[in-house]
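All the exercises in this workshop are built on plain-text protein records. Sequence and backbone structure share a record, each on its own labelled line. The question running through the whole workshop is how a given chain folds. The record below serves as our worked example for the rest of this section.
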Amino acid sequence: MPDVRLSSPQGKWILLTTVLGSSMVLLDSTVVNVALPRIGRDFDADLAALQWTVNAYMVTLAGLILLGGALGDRFGRRKVFVVGVLWFAGASLLCGLAPTPGVLVAARALQGVGGALLTPGSLALIQASFHPDDRGRAVGLWSGFGGIGAAVGPFVGGWLVDGPGWRWVFLLNVPLALLCAPVAVRHVPESAGGGAGDRFDVLGAALGALALALVTYALIEADAGSPLVVVCAVAGPAVAVAFVLVEKRRPHPMMPLDIFASRQFSAVNVVTLCVYAAFGGFFFLAALQLQVVVGYSALAAGTALLPTTALMLLLSARSGELGDRIGPRVPLTVGPLLCAAGMLLMLRVGPDASYATEVLPALLVLGFGMVTLVAPLTATVLASVDTARAGLASGVNNAAARAAGLVAVAALPLLAGMGPEAYRLPGAFDDAFRRAMVLCAGVLVLGSALAFATVRRPAPDCRHPECHTHGSVAVPPLEPETEPEPGEERGSGAR
């Protein structure tokens, strides 16, 4: 049984290590959107290159994050976490030194691999290291400090873009990693889970990532109309079907399909796809709208988006308590509607828009909607499966949200009619942004209707979230996997 106390020097070092590791990923996921206009200008790149700058990272992260947790269970959580930190830093260095858009996109894909290794590892180290009496508080501090990292990300990113340059958005990860990795090696105890004899589902992970990559390519490059686009448009769904068949037949799948036997779990994941597709599309386009159309600097655009994250940090725990009292159906119905209203309010944000009267009200309404739905959504996911599989359920839900976001970033510009040079033309981008906000609002209304029709109050003895404070606006929080009792079968090792 782990016995490190949070108040001990070692406990503080472990907390510092895990916060630094997760903050690298959270910072990267929030600051890159702010840097996109400057990246496009410096490389003289089209909109597709900006989409790939975001999505190359998300493809590998979403496709491999479940496998990353299993690798930690097999080879040692500290070892895999340190490898992930160093891998992420190396890929970040490549991003910062990239001479062409193609190199930047390839380096971003490598960054996603590192993120898939360290993201589940940071929470697993807390679960495996701290005494049970301190574990809940450690998880709370980890999620709270991580949320602060997500909150300052756009501000720091904007300051770096306007100051030393966008490359420092990526180079900043290198000193963080050089601090994090040695501390982990020196102060964090090694641990490993069960299932040492299980085989890894590498094929399943590869098929999942490949399906996402093919679909993403077909959507981003659709305007080109080349034969390769057609091939990818057909091959993507076919590979997705192959992924399902492989997962169904393998003895130790990355994503056991029987977890979807719970109708509530399946329904909540569909709601997740709807709401996080809208969120992914919104935060990709809003950072561009504020700079390209409204005329903000990168720093001003990053700072302008802070209210949503600040509201999540301040109110997510209270939202979870409210969901416990009244049940998840109302929050998961009302929350997406509030988010939809916030996105429709963004229709007023055009050239020379006032922040106080036009931008801020939209972001506040959106933020309150996110506060309303995110914590109850996580609680419903955990409550809809057996306690021993809660960690797996959280990992599947987290990966689904990431996949929804990357598909939205690929599809939304196409559906809204954004041409390759749209982000250089304020008038054209503004028109397409308005169409995109209407589409995002429609998807959120669909998610609300699904929640109202399918979500029911969970059993009173179900698993409750441990990450009460949450600041990331891109994905729902990961939850630690419950250690199985002696003789009990382990869920999957995935998170």
Notes: The longest helix spans residues 9-43. The two ends are 20 Å apart (CA to CA).
